[in-house]
Design goal:
The protein is α/β, with parallel strands linked by helices. The chain contains 12 helices and 12 strands.
Length: about 325
């Protein structure tokens, strides 16, 4: 559609990232195909599958998820550096993308990760696509970090939640950014101390789980894990949910700062206030939300891209 290079920056957001699929579907329908795709966390997964030609397979996988299936992918590990090893999810990705190398993809692709210890922002632009995805979505404390080229890496949202800067560095002249968290933390405010005390006084005492003679058992452990990731009882959210929500707040603050310093040409912000970070089983609604958000911006995008096309030489210039 345009001779200028188009960059697409897909941000993090856990389950909300399924909205990226809807955004890509809307852009494709409008004949807009980015030359450069940069993704962070779930954005790296969706972006990587798109560039590798596996977006349809990813969409089908997402639409078939249920709460039970999501829980089945959580291969818990209580002795390592992450609550979840991520091997089961990696196996699914490997089945479709095992041979995919980033440098051989038809479009430029970069997955953003963070190096443990140094805090360096690492741009993964070569090597196995699946490894780059895993490193980019490895939430600290939740997923086990990934070692690539001697560096231990985890979620890139800690340093660059919506990688507009990556697209610019790779030569994109027009950058479309997708922020799936714009309505989750963007309305934050200050809570007066008196209200905070009142809320604290009303909080019930958390119940203590009772173990049987042989521990919690498989059934009890699964119920506990389900409550940790999906539940929100009167006793407050589970530790896993607290970690995710805290990470989301940090990601939102960093994203707003980065976008202010390096703004995209257009930002697509799906309206997803009712969806939580673990609602992977709500893919159909999330994809639809992404598609609607993109369609709201299509008129502006197509007009701006048309203006950036090189002007055709005039008849006088041609005759000269």
């Amino acid at each position: 559609m345009s001779d200028c290079k188009i960059g697409l920056a897909l941000g993090g957001g856990s389950a909300r990232g399924w909205a990226h699929i809807g955004v890509l579907r809307a852009l494709q329908k409008a004949g807009i195909f980015p030359d450069i795709v940069a993704g962070t966390s779930i954005g790296a997964v969706v972006g990587g599958c798109y560039v590798a030609g596996e977006l349809e397979a990813l969409e089908q996988f997402a639409l078939e998820l249920t709460r039970r299936k999501v829980l089945g992918f959580l291969d818990f590990n209580f002795s390592g550096s992450g609550l979840i090893t991520g091997q089961r999810l990696c196996t699914v990705l490997d089945a479709r993308l095992k041979e995919a190398q980033i440098e051989r993809l038809p479009r430029r692709f970069v997955a953003v990760a963070t190096e443990i210890g140094s805090g360096h922002e690492v741009w993964l632009s070569r090597g196995r696509l699946v490894d780059a995805m895993r490193a980019s979505y490895a939430l600290p404390g939740i997923f086990r970090p990934v070692s690539i080229d001697g560096r231990w890496l985890f979620d890139g949202a800690l340093v660059n939640p919506i990688p507009v800067s990556v697209c610019r560095a790779l030569g994109a002249r027009y950058v479309i950014a997708v922020n799936v968290n714009s309505d989750s933390c963007g309305r934050g405010t200050v809570v007066p101390q008196m209200e905070l005390h009142a809320a604290a006084d009303e909080m019930p005492t958390p119940p203590v789980a009772e173990a049987g003679p042989y521990g919690y058992g498989v059934g009890g452990m699964r119920k506990l894990l389900k409550r940790q990731f999906f539940g929100r009882t009167d006793a407050g959210p589970g530790i896993s949910r607290v970690m995710m929500e805290a990470f989301n707040i940090v990601q939102d603050r960093i994203a707003r700062s980065r976008l202010a310093g390096d703004p995209p040409d257009v930002i697509i912000s799906p309206r997803l206030p009712q969806f939580g970070l673990f609602d992977f089983h709500q893919a159909e609604a999330l994809i639809q939300g992404g598609m609607l958000a993109a369609e709201r911006e299509l008129e502006d995008i197509t007009r701006e891209l048309a203006l950036r096309r090189p002007a055709a030489p005039s008849a006088m210039a041609r005759s000269a």
